[in-house]
Design a protein that fits this description.
CATH superfamily: MFS general substrate transporter like domains
Number of helices: 18
Number of strands: 0
Distance between the termini: 22 Å
Structural class: mainly alpha
Order of helices and strands: HHHHHHHHHHHHHHHHHH
Helix content: over 70%
Low-confidence stretches: none
Number of domains: 1
Shape: globular
CATH topology: Growth Hormone, Chain: A
């Protein structure tokens, strides 16, 4: 768990170093706002397309070897972005990051499902996904500070190359049998089409992924455009904007993710779909604070709204992913994560930064960022409605 958590931490540092330094990159590699959106999401497109491939491999091959390959590849690709001199070169380097992350993101959660029994998975998944706010924030903070001190090329090298050590360490992971803590041993993997049909008939899985699509659309837009918004619209210094936003993301992420894991397990046996209900309610509560974060004129009030909104949003990180582990049989669990990654990114954060960029080009960035709270509202509504209409889940 410690090693997997360290990998996930670096995963998100490497993802979010580019948004922190994009304005400096644009000084050397000119691009429009729409092109910036493409550069920011290049890794996501490849990541989501490669995920089903690694999902299938993860259900049939050695998971620790696939993890080692993925971490090494994304680390080298992050470092390679330091040598980009054209828009196409930057996009190519960031796209290669997505191949490596596809191997890791599909396999690690399924592996955690085999490390812990169902009653403890909510807290385990919450602990694992603490790396999202911490890693994202470190991406902003380290990217901004290293860029300010030594340039954006050094920032890519500094956060990319250490991953090679974690890739080597991945070969030491203990790999338990698939379905180790499930009621029944994992069956043999189904043919690919049968697996996809089984996932499509799984209503709890479909509702969870549907809400995650809207949630990911909003979160991707917020993460990729917030530093630029603070610099352009609120006229903040780039390093200061990244540091404050990154610090708040760490604090709110730790608090929200911890609360989500604790409340989700506390609600087990007391409400019909505890993880779905908690995810939906917390996301809906975040909507008005997300609106205030983009509209309040005062810096202190704006930062307070950002903190509350992010805390509520991060509450659902552990619960939403725990649902995907619990509701999918072990024999197709890695593929279940792979399909969810494909769908939620192709309809979520793979397109939201570019859409926000297009709206910004045609109107204003202030108008464009209001798509973020709108998408949070949609995702929260899907989860709440699903928690009320789905049949009760099977007892562990």
């Amino acid at each position: 768990m410690v090693l997997l958590g360290a990998m996930n931490l670096l995963n998100y540092i490497d993802r979010f170093v580019l948004p922190a330094i994009i304005e400096s990159v644009r000084a050397d590699i000119p691009m429009t706002d729409a092109q910036q959106g493409v550069a920011l999401t290049a890794f996501i497109w490849v990541y989501m397309l490669a995920s089903p491939v690694f999902g299938r491999l993860g259900d049939t091959r050695s998971r620790r070897h696939l993890l080692a390959f993925g971490v090494a590849l994304w680390s080298l690709a992050t470092a390679a972005a330091a040598f980009a001199t054209t828009f196409a070169g930057l996009v190519a380097a960031r796209a290669a990051v997505g191949v490596g992350e596809a191997a890791y993101a599909t396999i690690a959660p399924a592996l955690i499902g085999d490390y812990f029994p169902r009653a403890k998975r909510g807290r385990a998944m919450a602990a694992f996904y603490l790396a999202i706010p911490v890693g994202s924030a470190l991406g902003y903070i380290l990217g901004g500070r290293i860029n300010h001190a030594a340039g954006w090329q050094t920032a890519f090298l500094a956060v990319g190359l250490p991953g090679l050590l974690l890739a080597a360490a991945a070969l030491t992971l203990t790999e338990p049998p698939r379905g180790h803590f499930d009621d029944e041993p994992a069956a043999a993997p189904l043919p690919l089409l049968d697996t996809l049909r089984a996932l499509a008939r799984n209503r709890e899985y479909v509702v969870t992924v549907a809400g995650t699509v809207a949630y990911t659309f909003a979160l991707g837009g917020l993460a990729q455009w917030m530093p630029t918004y603070l610099i352009r619209v609120r006229h903040m210094d780039g390093a200061a904007a990244n540091t404050v936003f990154g610090t708040l993301t760490v604090l709110s992420g730790l608090l929200g993710t911890f609360l989500g894991g604790w409340l989700g397990d506390l609600l087990r046996g007391r409400v019909r779909h505890p993880y779905l209900l908690l995810s939906g309610v917390s996301t809906l509560l975040a909507v008005p604070f997300a609106v205030l974060a983009f509209t309040l004129p005062g810096a202190d009030q704006r930062w307070a709204a950002v903190f509350v909104a992010e805390t509520l949003v991060f509450v659902c990180t552990g619960p939403a992913n725990t649902i995907l582990v619990d509701c999918v049989p072990a024999a197709m669990r890695t593929m279940g994560f792979a399909v969810s990654i494909l769908v939620m990114h192709v309809l979520g954060d793979a397109i939201s930064p570019a859409i926000i960029g297009l709206v910004s080009d045609r109107s204003s960035l202030q108008t464009a960022v209001m798509l973020v709270p709108l998408a949070f509202a949609l995702g929260g509504a899907v989860w709440v409605i699903g928690s009320r209409r789905l049949a009760p889940p099977e007892s562990p």
